[in-house]
Amino acid sequence: MKNSDKKALLVILSSPSGGGKTSISREVVRSLKNAQYSVSVTTRPKRKDEKEGKDYFFVTEKKFKEMIAKKNFVEWARVFGKYYGTLKKYAERAFRENLTIFFTLDPQGALALKKKYPQSVLIYILPPSLSELKRRLQKRKTDSAAIIQKRLKEALKEISYWDKYDYVLINRNLKKSVEIVRNIVQAEKNKSRNFNFQVWRNQQHL
């Protein structure tokens, strides 16, 4: 365990596809000490700009189901016909080493993780508007027009969960959103429940 007076913190960001949760999470992780990004497992095909082990762990459906049987996941779900799972090892490492771990999950996954780890911090990222979200999805050039419409329809369902989250922010500007999330993390780590008093006490020499 790291010699830290701050306990582990699980931070979960959700947004509709294209809302910015992954970009924000990665920028915040780069700027914080003792922070890590949780890489999910998926059965969907790898996009041309994605890297194995950085963006996702890409596996076959057979392998994914084997991992379910072995209880490797904290939570998993099937989205648009593909499986996505959150590895248990990241949460376990957070508590073992007092790390801040960032997860990017849909509301179903976020609420499942919150149920298992009630001290988790949930942040919902809203796009400035649905028309802007559509523009971002089109700009990615990774989905057909039909899939984009399906994602926008799904976005309306996901957004309805916003009031289940601890924090909500509108992602108008990446730099500003990163700053807001950093401030949330700092405030959460300074809450008394996340202060490791015993470590602090052991450092005192009277």
What does this structure look like?
This protein has 206 residues and is of the alpha/beta class. The chain is 43% helix and 20% strand. It has 8 helices and 9 strands. The strands form 2 sheets. The chain has a 5-stranded parallel sheet, with helices on both faces. Strand 5 (73-79) and strand 6 form a beta hairpin. Helix 1 packs across helix 7. The protein is globular. The model has no long low-confidence stretch (mean pLDDT 89).
Map the helices and strands.
Blueprint: E1 9-14, H1 21-31, E2 35-37, E3 41-42, E4 57-58, H2 61-69, E5 73-79, E6 82-87, H3 88-97, E7 100-104, H4 107-116, E8 121-126, H5 130-140, H6 145-159, E9 167-170, H7 174-189, H8 197-202
Parallel strand pairs: 1-7, 1-8, 2-7, 3-4, 8-9
Antiparallel strand pairs: 3-6, 5-6
Low-confidence stretches: none
The strands making up the biggest β-sheet line up spatially as 2-7-1-8-9
Proportion of residues in extended strands: 15-25%
Give the helices and strands as they follow along the chain. Answer: EHEEEHEEHEHEHHEHH
Major beta-sheet overview? 5 strands, parallel
Give the termini separation: 25 Å
* CATH-defined fold name of the domain at 9-40 and 92-193: Rossmann fold
Helix content: 40-55%
For this structure, what is the CATH homologous superfamily of the domain at 9-40 and 92-193?
P-loop containing nucleotide triphosphate hydrolases
Broad structural category: alpha/beta
Count the helices. How many?
8
Q: Roughly what is the average pLDDT, rounded to an integer?
A: 89
The outline comes out as globular
The CATH architecture classification of the domain at 9-40 and 92-193 is: 3-Layer(aba) Sandwich
**Overall number of strands:** 9
Determine Rg (CA atoms, Å). Answer: 18 Å
What is the name of the CATH class of the domain at 9-40 and 92-193?
Alpha Beta
